[in-house]
């Protein structure tokens, strides 16, 4: 038998027929999946919506459980009158972590709609492990304190780094009430 000007054996003809048959069956299968079938009826739509709603509720419960386990959202927002206590807390955590620095400076409180903030800065020369320990510990405290910026560079001693740290502490609104 000749096909497109080439001689084709009987065995090749059978293989070509089987290949075309499989391709046609697969094409019809894909066509039936994309046009009609499951998912077009309102009942299927509502079943899919219920399944999505169930997955959302499960995810929300998991997030809630994580928040509870991580103590997220239980920070104390003190009035700015207590800024000295917050400054002492930062100093104590930094020194307990192994950071040494000459002074910790603070800015004046900045008023916001829902809270006030005070920025704290200090420079330290220590090993990287002490800095990482400080970052980890300061975020576990009773006050809401965030690391705003840290600028690091190698120190003269090869095992140490020089770091400039900027922290932001959050305080109760200026009205004195907590929201």
Q: How would a textbook summarize the main sheet?
A: 5 strands, antiparallel
Number of helices: 4
> Structural class of the secondary elements?
alpha+beta
The percentage of residues in β strands lies in: 15-25%
Secondary-structure element pattern, one letter each: EEHHHEEEHEE
Overall mean pLDDT score?
83
Query: What percentage of residues falls in helices of 4 or more residues?
Result: 40-55%
Global shape = elongated
Strand-helix topology:
Elements: E1 2-3, E2 6-7, H1 10-34, H2 42-70, H3 83-97, E3 105-106, E4 110-111, E5 116-127, H4 128-138, E6 145-154, E7 160-171
Antiparallel strand pairs: 1-2, 3-5, 4-5, 5-7, 6-7
Describe the fold and architecture.
The structure is a single chain. The chain is α+β, with helices and mostly antiparallel strands. 45% of the residues lie in helices and 23% in strands. It contains 4 helices and 7 strands. The strands form 2 sheets. Strands 3, 4, 5, 6 and 7 form a 5-stranded antiparallel β-sheet that branches. Strands 1-2 form a two-stranded antiparallel ribbon. A hairpin with a 2-residue loop joins strand 1 (2-3) and strand 2 (6-7). The protein is elongated, with a radius of gyration of 33 Å. The protein starts with a strand and ends in an 8-residue tail after the last strand.
């Amino acid at each position: 038998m000749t096909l497109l000007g080439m001689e084709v054996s009987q065995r090749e003809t059978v293989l070509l027929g089987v290949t075309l048959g499989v391709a046609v069956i697969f094409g019809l299968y894909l066509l039936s999946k994309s046009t009609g079938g499951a998912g077009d009826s309102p009942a299927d739509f509502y079943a899919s919506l219920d399944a999505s709603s169930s997955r959302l509720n499960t995810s929300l419960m998991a997030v809630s459980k994580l928040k509870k386990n991580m103590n997220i959202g239980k920070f104390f927002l003190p009035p700015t009158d207590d800024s000295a206590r917050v400054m002492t807390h930062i100093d104590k955590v930094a020194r307990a972590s192994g950071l040494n620095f000459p002074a910790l400076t603070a800015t004046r409180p900045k008023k916001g709609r829902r809270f006030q903030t005070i920025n704290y800065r200090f420079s330290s020369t220590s090993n990287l492990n002490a800095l990482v320990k400080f970052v980890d510990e300061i975020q576990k405290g009773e006050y809401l304190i965030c690391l705003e910026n840290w600028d690091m560079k190698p120190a003269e001693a090869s095992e140490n780094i020089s770091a400039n740290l900027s922290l932001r502490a959050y305080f109760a609104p200026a009205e004195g009430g907590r929201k």
